[in-house]
Design brief:
The chain is α/β, with parallel strands linked by helices. It is 33% helix and 15% strand. The protein has a 6-stranded mixed β-sheet, sandwiched between helices. Strand 4, helix 5 and strand 5 form a beta-alpha-beta unit. The longest helix has 17 residues. The protein is elongated and about 95 Å long. The N terminus is likely disordered.
Length: 211
């Protein structure tokens, strides 16, 4: 038997019954779980999501403070040139946060290998499902919720092509459920949700991309 296709994954119908079995490459789904690589990828993803808009005003930016509060000498008080000094109430902030870009890049190979680790972990825990077709007839939350309940799925990341618009609209208001396109699948989302559910088409596309 070819080592690259020694592993098997069951394909289910929409009611959760097995309809066929398909081979998957070991190089993807038997990849060693590299915890530190997964950690670095998750930190990178979260950093890239930060808006970096936190901001404080320096003494040059706060309003007021144009006049010297009192004369330099003779009052017995400490010297003061402005009542907007950081030492004063309502004064500027020293070394406060300023708008900045927190994003940075990880090597493409590192991101791909981290995703392989996450997928292998889901498969090992029997939390990865492949459905031959995810058919939501109407973009209604009620219909998607009924399907998930029938599949006994509570928290799930559902992966399908963007053409399945009814699915994306129907699950967006369900807590702990998210639908993504296969091209946008990332390690953070795989780990964030308990179940990982693929349409067969999205699953095959992902396997070809990661091989």
């Amino acid at each position: 038997m070819n080592k690259e296709c020694a592993m098997k994954v069951q394909v289910l119908d929409q009611s959760g019954k097995p309809v066929e079995e398909m081979s998957v490459p070991e190089e993807v789904f038997n990849y060693p779980v590299k915890e530190h690589l997964v950690y670095e990828t998750v930190v990178n993803y979260l950093a890239n999501q930060r808006q970096g808009t936190a901001s404080t005003k320096t003494r040059a930016e706060v309003s007021g403070g144009g006049r010297k509060p009192w004369r330099q000498k003779g009052t017995g008080r400490a010297r003061a040139g402005s009542n907007r000094s950081p030492l004063w109430r309502h004064g500027g902030t020293t070394f406060g946060p300023r708008p900045r870009d927190y994003s940075y890049d990880l090597p493409k190979k590192a991101r791909r290998n981290a995703l392989k680790s996450a997928l292998a972990a889901k498969l090992a825990e029997n939390l990865l499902l492949v459905v031959n077709e995810i058919n939501i007839s109407q973009p209604k939350t009620k219909e998607a919720a009924a399907w998930l309940k029938n599949m006994k799925i509570d928290s799930a990341l559902i992966v399908d092509s963007k053409e399945n618009n009814n699915l994306f609209l129907a699950v967006r208001n369900i807590p702990e459920v998210k639908a993504v396109e296969g091209e946008k699948l990332n390690t953070y989302d795989v780990l964030r949700y308990k179940w990982l559910v693929f349409s067969q088409q999205a699953f095959n596309s992902l396997v070809e991309r990661l091989k």
